[in-house]
Amino acid sequence: DGGITQSPKYLFRKEGQNVTLSCEQNLNHDAMYWYRQDPGQGLRLIYYSQIVNDFQKGDIAEGYSVSREKKESFPLTVTSAQKNPTAFYLCASSMWGGRETQYFGPGTRLLVL
Amino acid sequence: GENVEQHPSTLSVQEGDSAVIKCTYSDSASNYFPWYKQELGKRPQLIIDIRSNVGEKKDQRIAVTLNKTAKHFSLHITETQPEDSAVYFCAATYNSGGGADGLTFGKGTHLIIQP
Predict the structure, then answer these.
(1) Chain B within 8 Å of A98 (Cβ-Cβ)?
(2) Which residues of chain B have a CB within 8 Å of the CB of A71?
């Protein structure tokens, strides 16, 4: 777990603004993921990436974008098109192979001003 | 896509008693089923997982059972302790062996251990 970092811990977004959440891992994991968690809800998959320069949409990708230029990094941008962005955002990573354990970062809490 | 249902949403047990949380999944192709524990404001932590080639797995006070025919799996915690109080999530995913897919989570069970 300690090998996955997310920043910032708290992020405030103004109306119409794009914001980027950082996720870095030093576990040499191939796959990385972004989940959104709302109060009283389970985690929902936004995007995931199995290898560098490749990523797939999850269940709730609308209003979000990602990039995977480096194995260690998988930033998530919350665009102005995401009308309800207030949530707890969790990044995870795992070894390649699909059934390997996903380890989570500490999360970023995004709030709208 | 996959859909995971989790019950109950809240479970209160006396310290020392057992707790059971149940999940059902919809996609019969799912082959990996982890359980996560999340304390308030913290990240989810894996506590146990099971793959579709086994029916039961134990780790000290924690066990998970899987019934592929009925498409359900359960978490069993014995001799519950105050530190077991948290929200527990089940999840499921299918992987063909070619890559790492995302997990589909249940909505969580708030486990309360009464002293």
Answers:
(1) yes
(2) none
H or E element in which residue B87 lies:
strand B86-92
Q: How far apart are the CA of A72 and the nearest CA of chain B, in angstroms? A: 16
Rg of the Cα trace of chain A? Answer: 13
Give per-residue pLDDT as tens, A47-94: 999 999 999 999 999 999 999 999 999 999 999 999 899 999 999 999
3-state secondary structure chain A: CCCEEEECCEEEECCCCCEEEEEEECCCCCEEEEEEECCCCCEEEEEEEEECCEEEECCCCCCEEECCCECCECCEEECCCCCCCCEEEEEEEECCCCCCCCEECCCEEEEEC
CA A60/CA A102 separation, integer angstroms: 19
Residue type present at position A30 = D
Amino acid at A32: M
pLDDT in tens, A56-67: 999 999 999 999
**What distance, in Å, lies between the first and last C-alpha atoms of chain B?**
41
Phi then psi for residue B83, to 5 deg, are -70, -5
- Chain B: closest CA distance from residue A92 (Å): 10
Tell whether A100 lies on the interface with B, counting CB pairs under 8 A: yes
State the nearest Cα–Cα gap between A104 and chain B, in angstroms.
6
Interface of A with B in 55-94 (CB under 8 A): 58-59, 90, 94
Token digits for B16? Answer: 């020392």
Spatial separation of the C-alpha atoms in residues B89 and B75, rounded to whole Å: 10
